[in-house]
Structure formats: C-alpha cells, structure tokens
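Final paragraph of the annual report: two paired records, presented back to back.
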Amino acid sequence: MALMPKRIKHRKVQRGRISGNATRGARVVFGEFGLQAVQGGWIPAKTIEAGRIAAQQYLRGEGKLYIRIFPDKPITSIPLETRMGKGKGEPEYWAAVVKPGTILYEVGGTNEDAARLCLARLAHKMPVRVRMVRRRLK
C-alpha cells in the first residue's frame, strides 16, 4: 500500500519550485549508511514503496531500513483529450518533494558491502540522481 497522509488541510496544492539545497534531513541520523539525493524532484509514493520492497528483499531481516521521506504533496492531472478550461484536475497520486542533499533512505546494522549493494538497488528505482553517504563521526 502506497504512503499517503491521513488528513490534509487542502485537497489540491500548487506545483511550486524546488530551489536551493536541503537544510533539514540532510545528515545520516538513524543508520550507518544513507542514500542522498543529488538533484531535486518529486518522488511518487509508489516509487518509495518499490524502493522499500527492493531493499527489504535484499536485507532479508539482517539490518534495518529507514525511510526518511514522506509523500505529502498531491499531484493533480486532467484526463487526456480534455480541452482547456474546466479548472484544475483531480489528485492522481502523492509525491515527496526532494531537494538536493536530502537523505532518502538509511540502512543500519549491516556491513558496508551489503549496504552498498542494497542502496544500489534502491538508487536504480529513484527518479532523481542519488549517491551513497555514510554517517559522520562527532
């Protein structure tokens, strides 16, 4: 089941712009290794779920996966072959807005080679360019 908010204030929102780098959610906090977005974009809820399934199948219970993004933006569209006018379309799916530098997923409790392969499987499914990062020591 794809992620979506329980309640929202507005049913339809404007598209907006993705400008600047991420200031929050840009460090690995929960696990040892993370998948960081290099470019900005929207990540649909189905893509987040597909990444979760791919990572869980690879980890097989050893190690833990943390999802650091949540789809809270409704993306609308109008039906094909519809003329101009008649207002904004209906919400089609939910997406997470990702800025460059945002940590998307984290993996903990496993060695670096396994984490690298797991995050590579995740990176293949993402619609934005990503890279693997590790937790910084204090």
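The closing record of the year follows.
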Amino acid sequence: MATVAIKNIRGESVGNMELSDAIFGVEINKHAVHMAVIQYLANRRQGNKSSKTRAEVRGGGRKPWRQKGTGRARQGSTRSPQWTGGGVVFAPKPRDFSFKLNKKLKRLALKSVLTDKVQNEKLVILDSLELSEIKTKAMAGVCTSLSLDTALIVMDGSNDNVVASARNIPSIKTAGVNTINVYDILHYDSLVVTKAAIEKMQEVYA
C-alpha cells in the first residue's frame, strides 16, 4: 500500500494515510486511458454543424446557358458545387458523436490515472477543506500554501463556499467523488482530495 502525507490548508503535514492498492496501485493501462479520453471529448461535441447541399440551396432551377454552341463548359445549374453560391459537396449535417464504453474499461482507466498521480507524487490529501465565506482570495491562499499550479480539487460532498471561491481561478477546478473523470485528472497537474473523499472513493471504486 502507498502511504501519502495528509496536509491541512496551510500546507502543514498532520499525518499519513494508506491508500488501497485496488484503486491507487493498479497496473496502468494506457489503452483504457486513451479510450476514456477519446470518449469524453467525443461526448462533449455538439455535433450541430450543418451546410447546404446543392439540393437545399435556393435557386439554380434554370439552366444558365444552352448546352452547345457557346464555347463554354456545359452547366445545368448555378447551384452546382463549383459555382460561387452553390451547394457543398458531402455537406456536414448534425450528428451525435457520443459513444459508450464498457463500465469495467472506464473504471480501469480511472484507477490507472489515480495510480499515476500517486506514483508521480501529484496527489495531495487534505484533512478537510472548509471556507467560512465565499472569497476567491482565501481559496488562492490555500493553493499558494499547497504549492499548486493547476489542480483538480475533489470533495466528498457539496461545499458551496469552496466551489464558489474557486470558480474565478482559471487553474483550479472542483468536483465531487461521483463526478470526477479521466480527462480532468490528466488535464490538471495536481489532484487534491480531502480525506473524506479518499475514503468514499475507496468504497465506491474498490
């Protein structure tokens, strides 16, 4: 089992915590991580891009000039793709890019990135994270004390003061145990998790 120091919001070590190898000590599966990231990005796509084909562009019903005798190439419509104002060849249409992944593969990908954070010493465990009021400066002070550059902060429950205080800090994102994803864990340099959230993760994802 890996052992990680527990810190308070001032960056002081207040103890140690043993992490379950079933979640934080698995063999890293790069393929599972890759597929989880691809799925996340695909599911975020709106898929509402649309252009008109030659059948949908208004006009072009009359043949622009007679078939023979003009010296010009034959044309049947001014809305053909080669004309300015014509339709688009193989025009993009609204579509759904999302796809599903096997639940075991998604779980393996999540465990892989959590293990990677532990191995690279990018996991920070907090004894608790509470703010008495909504104040961005207070949250920025916590990040400075913990020497965080970019970080994903995971809590066991909803803490409105923390969420609102971190909202205006571009390099910080907050999430709950049930809303974390592989992409965000990889995207942010550090993973900050409260002790209660770690305990909940070891129950949910074991």
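The beta strands are 2-7, 13-19, 123-126, 151-155, 172-176, 190-194. This concludes the annual technical report; the extension proposal builds directly on these records.
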